Amino acid sequence: MRAATILMFLLLWPPATLPQGKPQVWGYGVKQCRSFLSAFDGWESGDQAGIEEYLRYRGWLSGLVTGLSLATGSDVLQGTEPDGALRRIRIHCDEQPDDDFFTAAMALIRQLSRLGE
Fold it and tell me: What's the chain's Rg over C-alpha atoms?
């Protein structure tokens, strides 16, 4: 519960006191879609290294979705499970392999929720 309170505090911090410029993205969000596609293919084929990498992407996405859902008070994936979300992100990445994983994830979140409105 304490972590949720801290997250809410940080997300609701007045914008004037936050650094200006592009939001910083860390971890797997900065990886290109090409890397995600490789991990996804490895997961599908049962390759151990691919499975492990896929699970890292799933963990990163789960953290992003959890944070956004707590901050907005809504289910930003509208009931979609992580593996289903990753399948849909794969479509985005197939079409735009130079995008980063964060961009692909946010495109899906915007499709499923009202964050983009």
Answer: 15
Give percent above pLDDT 70 in the chain.
Answer: 77
CB count in 10 Å sphere of residue 19: 7
Name the residue range of residue 50's domain: 30-112
What pLDDT digit, counting tens, does each position of 91-117 carry? 999 999 999 999 999 999 998 876 545
Q: How many angstroms separate the CA atoms of 1 and 63, rounded?
A: 15
Specify the number of domains making up the chain.
1
Backbone angles phi, psi at 100, to 5 degrees: -85, 165
**pTM confidence score:** 0.77
Q: For residue 13, is it within any domain?
A: no
79, part of any domain:
yes
Residue with token string 């949720």: 4
